[in-house]
C-alpha cells in the first residue's frame, strides 16, 4: 500500500463516469470534477429526486480516505446532503456506515465552496456512487466531486468448493501467533480454513448461517466450538478476519467485532504445522466447503498467497476473484413496491414463479397478482414467519397453503410457486401441495394480508426467466417506488448486541428489542439495575429487615447478589454468610499437624469487595477456644497459627480478633488481662481452658478466607474455632453530598465516558426555581441535566443527530427544600428520565443515526457555561454505577460546602407511631422513646404472650411503671390485643385517691371500660354492644379522657395487676385473678410505654416486674413504610403516597373519634345533651355513632374507644362513640 494520499477522480476520463440521468449533454457526469468549469460546470440529472446518482469507476480497487463535493459552477444547483455507496463490480452496492449505522454526509451551502469529509474508516473499492438526499430547494441537484486515497494492492484467490491450497509452516517460537485474511462469499455456510498442528490437534474456521465459528479439533472427529463472531457474512462483501493465539486465550476478530475466549488446557501446547484452504474438508459434500474469494492471507506477517504463487501451488484455484452477479432489491419501508409488467398469472397450461428473500420481520406481503381474466387474486405473504399462499376466486372457497417456519432469521430463503396439474409451493426445497380453507374459516387466516414486506429480494424468475432489475431501475420496465435496487440493505442490529448484562436481543427490520427478564436490569438495553446498591438504600426507601438483591455498582459489571439486610437498629447491617459460621470443634486426627479450614462466602468476589469498600465500617468475629493448644506466640517468638484475609486470595494475618493489625496479639493483650502476663493471648498460657475472641474491624484485611491452626495435635489438646459472618454498615455513597450556596459555583471531574450507554442518578434539594445540575460538553456533543422550572426536570443531549431532550413535570413544586431523586439514561435505543416515583418519560433515538456520545471537556456538577447554575444540595451522584466523591472535591473548592444536613423534612414520615425524626450529620434516625413501638422506624411492636400468674396458675404477673406526683387532666391510652379468653383484664389505672380506670373484656366478649373518678361515687361502666372480640384476631383500642378538674391525679399504671394489690377494686381483683392468655402489644399511656419499658428496659427505676415476662412476635407484622423520596404523584393522586399523609390518616382514624368531655357543672339532663350536641357539631360528623350501653348516667366523663381488626372490615373494626 502507498501511504501518500492522492486525488483519485481529477485525472479520470469521461468514460469513467456514469449517472442515473442527465439534464443535457453539457450536464453529463463527465463534467463532475472538482473545481472544473467545462460543460455546464458540473453534473445535473434530468429530474431532481431521490432516485438520482452519480457513479465513478476508479479503474481498480483503491483505498479511499476522504471525499470532497461542490455544486454546479455558476448556478443555484447543489446538494445539501448525500450518501456514499461502494462496489467492487458495479453491482451489489453497499452503503457507507459509521458506528454501525447508515451515514449521511452534510453537503454544500452554495455552488462554489468545497466541503470535504474524512471517512471515519477508509474504504477499499473500485466504484464510488454518490446519491443526493437533499438539495437546494430553489435549484436542482448539482455536483462536482473528488475522492482522495491511495492504490490498494492485494493477493487474491478464488475457491469453488472443490479447489484447495495447502501451506506447510515452520513453528515459530513467539508469544503470539496470528492468522489474518479477508474473504467474501455468497454462501452462508462452509469450511474456510483448517490449521493442523502436533498430536492431531487442529483449529478450524467455519462459516455457519452467516457467522464465523472458531473450533478446536482433537483428532479428526472431536471438535469443540469456542466462539462465534459476525453476522450476514454471506453478503458478497469483503470481511476482515484475525485469529490471535496468546498463551492462555484466543482473540477472534471479524471486521470490528472481537471476542476473547480462553484456550482449553488440552490445547495450550500447540503450534501450526500446516494451513489448509479447502483441502476437501468435507469430501462427501462439496457444498460444505468454501465458495468465494480470499485475499491477503497472512501468517505472522508472511503472505501465504504470494508464497503459493511463487511456488506454483495453484492446483485448481484462480489467483483472482471471480464472482457471480446477483442484483438484489431492498424494500425499506411500507411505501416500497415493485411492479412488473405482463401477465404473470397461473395459466391452465402451467406456469412458475420464483424468488429469494431475507428479512427480520415475521409478516409482510411478498407478491400478489391477478389470475387470468381477473378470475381471482393470488397473495404470497409472510405471517408468523411462515410463507402463506392464498388464492381467492369469486364463488369458490379460498385456497391456502403454508410452508416453512422461522423464515425471519435474516438468511436467504427461496420460494417457488408452480402450477401444473395442481398447485405447489416450495420453500427452501420443501414442497407443499394445495389445500382449501374450510368454509367456516372466513377470519384472519384467509383474508388478504395488509402489512408491507421490509427486506431484500433477488433472483426473481417468471417461467424460469430471470427478471432484469437493472432495466427496472432505469425505468425501462415496470415501475417502483422507495426501493434500493442493486443492493441488499439488511443490517443485523443484534450483532454486535447492544443488550447489556446478559439480555437477549431480537430484532425486526427497523429496530431491535432486549429481553431483560431474569437479568436484574431494565431499560431498553438492560443497562440500569432494578435493585438498590446497598441495604442502607433499601432502608431509606422504607423497607424492613430481610433478604434483598444488592447491586453494588448499579449499571456496572458486578452482578446483583441476594444478601441479608438487618434493619432492626439505627445502623443498617449488611450480613454476608459463609459456609461455616458455627462454633467448630477440631476433631483428633493423625493426618497432618495442622487444621486448614477455608470459607466460601454467599457473594461473588467482586460483590464482596465492593460491599467492604463502600461501607463505612465492617467487622467479623473471630474466636478460638482451646486447652493446651497455643495460638500465636511460640516459645521461639514466631506465630504458631494465623489466618488469611483480604482481597483476592488474601494475605497472612498474625493478629487475632480485637487486636491491632500486625501486632501478633489478641484482645487480652490490649486489655492487659491475659492469663499469662508474659504472653499476648490467653491460649498461649498453655494451661487450662482459654478463650481468645474479638472483632476484626480492619477492612483491608477482610474477609477471613481461611485459618491455619497448627498446635492442635498434641496429646491432651482441645480446640474449637468460630468465624462469624461478615457484617458491614453504612453506605459512603448514599449521603455523599455538596451544598452550592451560589449559582456561579461548580465542581469539576474528569470527562464522563458513556459512549453507548450513560446513566445518571442523583438526589437534589433546593429553594431555587431553576438551574443546571450537571453537564459535560464535546465539540458538538453534550449531555446536560437541569431543573428548568420549579416543576420540571429536563435531560438533554446531542450525539451528532441534533439536540434531543426528555422532560418530566412534577405537577407540584420541586423547590420545596426536600430531597428529590432523578434517574436519567441514554442508550442507542432511547433516552429516559424518571423523577421520584413519577412515570418515566422516554424519547426514541433517531433510526440509523449517530450512536456514540463523544465528550472532551471536564464534567461539571453545576455549570461553568453561560447557563444558570444550581443553588442547593446534590448528593449520591452516580454515573454509570460510579459514585463521584462530591465531599472530597467540595473540600478543595472555595464556596462549596461538603455535606448537606436537613433530612427530616423528607424522611421524617418514615418515623411511625409517634416516633420523632432526629437529624444527623450524614443521615437521620428515629427517636422511639415516646412511642410504644421500637425499631429503626418505630414500627416494631412490643408483644407479651401467654401470661400466667405464679400464685394460682391463672393470673398474670405484673409490670408496673409508676408515675409519682402527676396531676393529669387528660389521658390517652392505646393498646392492641389478640385473645380467645373472656373475661379478661387488659389494663388497670389507679390514683392515690382510690380512683381507677380499667379496660377489659366481659363474659359476653364485649369491650368494657369501668371507672370511678370520685371515691364517693359508684363505679360506672361503658359497654359496647359489639360482641365476639375474643375471636383470636388482632384489635386495636384507644381511650381518651379530658377532665374538668386537676383533682384526678393518677399514681401508676399497672398491667394485669395481681390480686394482692390493696387498692384494687374487689370485682376487678376477682377478674384479675383469672389471668390473661393472649397477646398484648403497643401499650401506651400518654407518652409512657409500660410494656416496652418492662421488656426492653426492665432495670429502670420506674418499672416493677413480677414473675417471668416474655417478649413475643404474636402481634401484627410491621407495615412497610413508603419511600420518603417519592412524594409527588400524578394529578388527582397527590398526597396518597406521601408517608406523612398516610400517617395523618392513621392518626385521624385512631384518635379523631374522641369520646369525652367532662362537665364541671351538673345542670340536668338537658344541659348534658346540649354539651354533647355541641361536641358532635365541632367534629362535623367524622365519628360514626354506635350504640353502647351505659349502666349509669355520668356527665363528668366521656370516652372514645376504637377497636380495629387486621382481617378486613368486620364488625370488630367499627368505631365506638360514647
UniProtKB/TrEMBL annotation:
Disordered, as annotated region: 1116-1136
Residues annotated as domain Fibrinogen C-terminal: 526-578
Disulfide bonds: 873-900
Predominant localisation class: membrane
Subcellular location(s) per record: Membrane
Its membrane topology: Single-pass type I membrane protein
Every F5/8 type C domain range: 1-150
InterPro entries: ConA-like_dom_sf, EGF, FA58C, Fibrinogen-like_C, Fibrinogen_a/b/g_C_dom, Galactose-bd-like_sf, Laminin_G, Neurexin-related_CASP
Segments forming domain EGF-like: 490-527, 901-939
Gene Ontology CC: membrane
Origin superkingdom: Eukaryota
Alphabetical keyword list: Disulfide bond, EGF-like domain, Membrane, Repeat, Signal, Transmembrane, Transmembrane helix
A Pfam family annotated for this UniProt entry: Laminin_G_2
Transmembrane parts of this sequence: 1145-1172
Domain Laminin G per the UniProt entry, residue ranges: 154-321, 327-488, 736-900, 947-1114
Family classification: Belongs to the neurexin family.
Protein name per the record: Contactin-associated protein-like 4
Amino acid at each position: 500500500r502507498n501511504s501518500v494520499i492522492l486525488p483519485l477522480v481529477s485525472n479520470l476520463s469521461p468514460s469513467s463516469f456514469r449517472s442515473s440521468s442527465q439534464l443535457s449533454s453539457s450536464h453529463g457526469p463527465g463534467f463532475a470534477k472538482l473545481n472544473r468549469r467545462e460543460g455546464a460546470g458540473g453534473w445535473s440529472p434530468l429530474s431532481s429526486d431521490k432516485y438520482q446518482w452519480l457513479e465513478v469507476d476508479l479503474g481498480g480497487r483503491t483505498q479511499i480516505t476522504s471525499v470532497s463535493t461542490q455544486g454546479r459552477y455558476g448556478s443555484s444547483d447543489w446538494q445539501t446532503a448525500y450518501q456514499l455507496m461502494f462496489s467492487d463490480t458495479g453491482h451489489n452496492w453497499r452503503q457507507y456506515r459509521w458506528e454501525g449505522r447508515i451515514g449521511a454526509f452534510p453537503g454544500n451551502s452554495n455552488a462554489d465552496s468545497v466541503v470535504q469529509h474524512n471517512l471515519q474508516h477508509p474504504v477499499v473499492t473500485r466504484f464510488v456512487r454518490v446519491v443526493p438526499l437533499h438539495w437546494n430547494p430553489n435549484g436542482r441537484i448539482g455536483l462536482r466531486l473528488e475522492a482522495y486515497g491511495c492504490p490498494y494492492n492485494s493477493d487474491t484467490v478464488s475457491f469453488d468448493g472443490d479447489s484447495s491450497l495447502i501451506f506447510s509452516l515452520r513453528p515459530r517460537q513467539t508469544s503470539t501467533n496470528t492468522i489474518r485474511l479477508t474473504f467474501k462469499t455468497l454462501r452462508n455456510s462452509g469450511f474456510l480454513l483448517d490449521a493442523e498442528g502436533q498430536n492431531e490437534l487442529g483449529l478450524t474456521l467455519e462459516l455457519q448461517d452467516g457467522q464465523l465459528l472458531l473450533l478446536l479439533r482433537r483428532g479428526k472427529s472431536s471438535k469443540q466450538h469456542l466462539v462465534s463472531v459476525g453476522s450476514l457474512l454471506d453478503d458478497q462483501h469483503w470481511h476482515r478476519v484475525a485469529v490471535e493465539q496468546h498463551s492462555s486465550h484466543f482473540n477472534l476478530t471479524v471486521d470490528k467485532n472481537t471476542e476473547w475466549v480462553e484456550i482449553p488446557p488440552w490445547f495450550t501446547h500447540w503450534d501450526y504445522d500446516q494451513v489448509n484452504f479447502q483441502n476437501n474438508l468435507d469430501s462427501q459434500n462439496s457444498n460444505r466447503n468454501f465458495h468465494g474469494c480470499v485475499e491477503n492471507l497472512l501468517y505472522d506477517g508472511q503472505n501465504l498467497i504470494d508464497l503459493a504463487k511463487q511456488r506454483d501451488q495453484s492446483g485448481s484455484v484462480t489467483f483472482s476473484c471471480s464472482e457471480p452477479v446477483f442484483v438484489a432489491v431492498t424494500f425499506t419501508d411500507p411505501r416500497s413496491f415493485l411492479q412488473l409488467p405482463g401477465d404473470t398469472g397461473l395459466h391452465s397450461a402451467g406456469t412458475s414463479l420464483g424468488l429469494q428473500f431475507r428479512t427480520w420481520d415475521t409478516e409482510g406481503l411478498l407478491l400478489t397478482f391477478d389470475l387470468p381474466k381477473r378470475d381471482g387474486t393470488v397473495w404470497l405473504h409472510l405471517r408468523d414467519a411462515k410463507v402463506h399462499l392464498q388464492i381467492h376466486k369469486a364463488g369458490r372457497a379460498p385456497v391456502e397453503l403454508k410452508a416453512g417456519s422461522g423464515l425471519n432469521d435474516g438468511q436467504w430463503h427461496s420460494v417457488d410457486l408452480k402450477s401444473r396439474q395442481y398447485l405447489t409451493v416450495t420453500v427452501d426445497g420443501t414442497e407443499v401441495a394445495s389445500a382449501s380453507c374450510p368454509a367456516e374459516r372466513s377470519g384472519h387466516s384467509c383474508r388478504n394480508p395488509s402489512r408491507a414486506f421490509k427486506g431484500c429480494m433477488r433472483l426473481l424468475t417468471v417461467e424460469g426467466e430471470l427478471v432484469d432489475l437493472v432495466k427496472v431501475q432505469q425505468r425501462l420496465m415496470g415501475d417502483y417506488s422507495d426501493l434500493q435496487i442493486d443492493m441488499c440493505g439488511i443490517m443485523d442490529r443484534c450483532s454486535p448486541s447492544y443488550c447489556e448484562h446478559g439480555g437477549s436481543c431480537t430484532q425486526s427490520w427497523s429496530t431491535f428489542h432486549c429481553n431483560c427478564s431474569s437479568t436484574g436490569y431494565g431499560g431498553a438495553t438492560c443497562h440500569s439495575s432494578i435493585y438498590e446498591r446497598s441495604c442502607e438504600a433499601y432502608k431509606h426507601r422504607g423497607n424492613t429487615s430481610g433478604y434483598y438483591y444488592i447491586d453494588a455498582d448499579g449499571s456496572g459489571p458486578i452482578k446483583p447478589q441476594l444478601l441479608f439486610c438487618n434493619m432492626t437498629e439505627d445502623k443498617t447491617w449488611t450480613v454476608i454468610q459463609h459456609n461455616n459460621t458455627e462454633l467448630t470443634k477440631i476433631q483428633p486426627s493423625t493426618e497432618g499437624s495442622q487444621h486448614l479450614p477455608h470459607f466460601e462466602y454467599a457473594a461473588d468476589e467482586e460483590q464482596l469487595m465492593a460491599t467492604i469498600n463502600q461501607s463505612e465500617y465492617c467487622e467479623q468475629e473471630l474466636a478460638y477456644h482451646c486447652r493446651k493448644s497455643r495460638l500465636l506466640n511460640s516459645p521461639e517468638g514466631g506465630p504458631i497459627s494465623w489466618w488469611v484475609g483480604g482481597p483476592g486470595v488474601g494475605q497472612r494475618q498474625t493478629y487475632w480478633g480485637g487486636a491491632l493489625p500486625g501486632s501478633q496479639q489478641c484482645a487480652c493483650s490490649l486489655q492487659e488481662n491475659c492469663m499469662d502476663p508474659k504472653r499476648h493471648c490467653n491460649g498461649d498460657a498453655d494451661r487450662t481452658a482459654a478463650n481468645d475472641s474479638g472483632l476484626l474491624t480492619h477492612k483491608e484485611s477482610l474477609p477471613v478466607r481461611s485459618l491455619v491452626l497448627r498446635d492442635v495435635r498434641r496429646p491432651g489438646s482441645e480446640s474449637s474455632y468460630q468465624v462469624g459472618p461478615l457484617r458491614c454498615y453504612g453506605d459512603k455513597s448514599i449521603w455523599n453530598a455538596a451544598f452550592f450556596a451560589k449559582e456561579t459555583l461548580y465542581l469539576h471531574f474528569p470527562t464522563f465516558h458513556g459512549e453507548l450507554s450513560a446513566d445518571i442518578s442523583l438526589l437534589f434539594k433546593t429553594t431555587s426555581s431553576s438551574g443546571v445540575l450537571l453537564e459535560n460538553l464535546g465539540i458538538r456533543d453534550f449531555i446536560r441535566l437541569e431543573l428548568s422550572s420549579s416543576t420540571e426536570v429536563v435531560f438533554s443531549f446531542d450525539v451528532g443527530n441534533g439536540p434531543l431532550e426528555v422532560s418530566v413535570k412534577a405537577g407540584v413544586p420541586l423547590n420545596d427544600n426536600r430531597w428529590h431523586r432523578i434517574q436519567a439514561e441514554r442508550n442507542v435505543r432511547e433516552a429516559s428520565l424518571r423523577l421520584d416515583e413519577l412515570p418515566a418519560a422516554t424519547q426514541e433515538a433517531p433510526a440509523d443515526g449517530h450512536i456514540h456520545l463523544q465528550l472532551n471537556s471536564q464534567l461539571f456538577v453545576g455549570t461553568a457555561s453561560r447557563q444558570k447554575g444550581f443553588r442547593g444540595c446534590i448528593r449520591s451522584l452516580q454515573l454509570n454505577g460510579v459514585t463521584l466523591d462530591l465531599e472530597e472535591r467540595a473540600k478543595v473548592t472555595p464556596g462549596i460546602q461538603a455535606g448537606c444536613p436537613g433530612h427530616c423534612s423528607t424522611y421524617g414520615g418514615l418515623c411511625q407511631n409517634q416516633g420523632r425524626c432526629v437529624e444527623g450529620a450524614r443521615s437521620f434516625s428515629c427517636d422511639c422513646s415516646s412511642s410504644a413501638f421500637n425499631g429503626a422506624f418505630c414500627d416494631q411492636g412490643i408483644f407479651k404472650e401467654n401470661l400466667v400468674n405464679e400464685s394460682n396458675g391463672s393470673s398474670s404477673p405484673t409490670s408496673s411503671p409508676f408515675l409519682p406526683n402527676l396531676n393529669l387532666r387528660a389521658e390517652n391510652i392505646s393498646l392492641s390485643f389478640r385473645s380467645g379468653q373472656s373475661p379478661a383484664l387488659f389494663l388497670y389505672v389507679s390514683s392515690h385517691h382510690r380512683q381507677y380506670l380499667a379496660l377489659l373484656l366481659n363474659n359476653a366478649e364485649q369491650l368494657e371500660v369501668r371507672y370511678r373518678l370520685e371515691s364517693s361515687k359508684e363505679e360506672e361502666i361503658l359497654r359496647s354492644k359489639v360482641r365476639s372480640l375474643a375471636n383470636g384476631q388482632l384489635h386495636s383500642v384507644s381511650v381518651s379522657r379530658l377532665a374538668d378538674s386537676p383533682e384526678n391525679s393518677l399514681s401508676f399504671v399497672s398491667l394485669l395487676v395481681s390480686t394482692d394489690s390493696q387498692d384494687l377494686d374487689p370485682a376487678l381483683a376477682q377478674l384479675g385473678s383469672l389471668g390473661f392468655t393472649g397477646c398484648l402489644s403497643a401499650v401506651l399511656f400518654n407518652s409512657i410505654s409500660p410494656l416496652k419499658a418492662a421488656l426492653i428496659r426492665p432495670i429502670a427505676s420506674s418499672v416493677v416486674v413480677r414473675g417471668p415476662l416474655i417478649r413475643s412476635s404474636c402481634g401484627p407484622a410491621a407495615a412497610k413504610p413508603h419511600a420518603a423520596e417519592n412524594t409527588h404523584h400524578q394529578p388527582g393522586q397527590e398526597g396518597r403516597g406521601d408517608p406523612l399523609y398516610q400517617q395523618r390518616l392513621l392518626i385521624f382514624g385512631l384518635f379523631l373519634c374522641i369520646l369525652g368531655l367532662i362537665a364541671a357543672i351538673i345542670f340536668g339532663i338537658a344541659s348534658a345533651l346540649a354539651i354533647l350536641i355541641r361536641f358532635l357539631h365541632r367534629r362535623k360528623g367524622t365519628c360514626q355513632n354506635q350504640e353502647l350501653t351505659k349502666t349509669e348516667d355520668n356527665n363528668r366523663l366521656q370516652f372514645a374507644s376504637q377497636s380495629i381488626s387486621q382481617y378486613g372490615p368486620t364488625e370488630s373494626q367499627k368505631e365506638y362513640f360514647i
